[in-house]
Amino acid sequence: MKKFIGILFMSMLVFVLSACGSDDETAQGGGSSGDEASGKSHNLIISHFLPGNHPIQTQVFDDIGSTLDEESDGRITTELYPSNALGDAGSQYDMAVTGEADIALSVHGYTPGRFPLVSVLELPFLAETAEHGSRIIANLYEEFPEFQEEHDETEALFLFTAEPAQIISKDHKIETPDDLDGLRVRTPSPLGNEILEALGAAPVSMPMGDVYESLERGVIDAAMVPLETLYNYNFHEIANYITVGNFSATPFFSVMNKDTYNSFSDADREVLDSLTGIETAAEAGAVFDVDGQKGKQQSEENGAEFIELSGDQLAAWQDALDEVTQGWIDDMEAEGYPGQEIYDRAVELKEEVRE
Predict the structure, then answer these.
(1) Residues 131, 246: Cα–Cα separation, whole Å
(2) Is the C or the N end of the chain the one with fewer CB within 10 Å?
(3) Residue 25 pLDDT exceeds 80
């Protein structure tokens, strides 16, 4: 019996000492509490529709990935899947919703009707450059809960825009709205259709890859495209006339799976948040502007004529397109959104964020 009591006593002593040791370890930041404080390991799957050599990947996402890796001592890594490797461009948002991708990037317009408010940036004469448009849309997201609700199935990291679309033509010098009357013009979006129809043109939907040959062969008379296409699609070789009026800009999103975002520790989430938001949106937009300048330079060297709309000349275009803007406002108001307030704020931001 004495032997049994001795063994029981020793077992209890070991248990008490172990418990004390665990308490000390927790107090010093060790054990499971320490692991939780330092954050879990993550390998973030990032999916997008752009080519792997696009600066959105090689600059924006690579910079985000390297900073997360460095700040987490290698616990957070990224794995990039460009060129629709995991799903087509219209599926990217839902891939982030379901967790098929941790982070996804695409164009809002690839799922028509799902993000009505961001299409305010597609209205004419708002975005002057991609960086400028990106600052406008990023600020609208911060200020309007309705913008946030459009993305509430995910954690929105940053919204941005591509360069505003201009009108290029091989054979037609376009200076006034009347010059577009009856012309067949490639359109970038459903709202682009409305813009072109209001100007008397016949909108033609076609992939960007078909525009070069269609312009060259006269299948279309003009195309509404950003200046970066002069460089990236070699349109500088056939565009003899380029009318610059900032007719529409294409909104993009980069969003994150909510469960992935919420699984980050507070410290890791703080690092991630510092890599997103308005400044990252502006950086994403700026990469499009760089190629736009390259395209403009190539076109000038090739002898193209640029028609830069301003003053009374621009006013005629604005008058012709007032109905498109008012139509957008009326449609949003009819759906219960503050369309007028959002548009008015976008116009204010156009001046406020201009550098």
Answers:
(1) 13
(2) N
(3) no
13 lies in a domain?
A: no
What is the domain-level CATH number for residue 45?
A: 3.40.190.170
Buried b (16+ CB within 10 A) or exposed e, 135-169: bbbbbbbeebebbeebbeebbbbbbbbbbbbbbbb
Does position 126 have pLDDT exceeding 60, yes or no?
yes
Look at residue 26 and tell me if it is in a domain: no
- Let me know whether 267 and 319 are in one domain: no
Amino acid at position 29, single letter: G
pLDDT in tens, 306-347: 999 999 999 999 999 999 999 999 999 999 999 999 999 999
Instruction: Give yes or no: residues 154 and 182 share one domain.
Output: no
Q: Are 195 and 262 members of one domain? A: no
The pTM score is 0.87
Could you list the residue range(s) of the whole structural domain that residue 235 is in? 165-250+291-352
Sheet containing 305-308: give its strands across: 202-205, 184-187, 222-226, 165-169, 241-248, 305-308
Residue 156's H or E segment, with its range, is: strand 155-161
> Whole-angstrom Cα distance, residue 263 to residue 265?
6
Residue 215 banded pLDDT, cuts 50, 70, 90? very high
Query: How is 35-85 classified by DSSP, letter by letter?
Result: HHHH---EEEEEEESS-TTSHIIIIIIHHHHHHHHHHTTTSEEEEEE-TTS
Query: Does one domain contain both 280 and 300?
Result: no
The answer to whether residues 171 and 229 belong to one domain is: yes
**What single string gives the DSSP state of each residue in 231-299?**
HHS-GGGT--EEEEEEEE--EEEEEE-HHHHHHS-HHHHHHHHHTSSHHHHHHHHHHHHHHHHHHHHHH
For residue 38, which amino acid is it? S
How many separate domains does the chain show? Answer: 2
